[in-house]
Amino acid sequence: QVQLVESGGGLVQPGGSLRLSCAASGTTLSFNAMGWFRQTPGKEREIVGAMSRNGDSTYYTDSVKGRFTISRDNAKNTVYLQMNSLKPEDTAVYYCAAKRFPNYGVYYNRKDEYDYWGQGTQVTVSS
Predict the structure, then answer these.
(1) Between the CA atoms of 40, 42, 46 and 48, what dihedral angle is there, to the nearest 10 degrees?
(2) Count of CB atoms within 10 A of residue 19's CB?
(3) Residue 53 and residue 69: Cα distance in Å, rounded?
(4) Which pLDDT score is estimated for 27?
(5) What is the C-alpha to C-alpha distance for residues 28 and 30, in angstroms, rounded to an integer?
(6) Which of 11, 25, 96, 97 has its CA 20 to 30 A from that of 72?
């Protein structure tokens, strides 16, 4: 059984940083394309960033470009989302997702393309 578990969320002041982790069991994340999404109440879950299986291709939504970075540690079977220069509008529940059998070198930025999801971690940016 595949499980993705996010951690690292919390309360941070504007301009601060957080690093979210997504640890997997039941699957080897290096075989999956990965994505980070976020959702606020009453809104659709939206893409934050995505990474191809081999890590060579990445995508970031415009609002986080230059501030957020996705990375992998295959030895730990974990994917990260480093978030810098956080803004109040980044407040949301953040989810990681994994896509099985991805095309090589391709990232995926639609939520219906992903097979596995974590439970989410709350990020609140407020002074």
Answers:
(1) -10
(2) 13
(3) 15
(4) 87
(5) 5
(6) 11
Give the CA angle between residues 48, 69, 46 to the nearest 5°. Answer: 5
Q: Which residue has the tokens 């109040």?
A: 88
DSSP category for residue 103: P
Residues 6+ apart with CB under 8 A from 66: none
How many other CB atoms are found less than 10 A from the CB of residue 96? 30
Contact (Cβ atoms closer than 8 angstroms) between residue 98 and residue 24: yes
Instruction: With cut-offs at 50, 70 and 90, classify the pLDDT of residue 29.
Output: confident
**Residues ≥6 apart with Cβ < 8 Å to 84:** 17, 67, 68, 69
With left for phi above 0 and alpha for psi between -120 and 50, is residue 113 left, alpha or beta? alpha
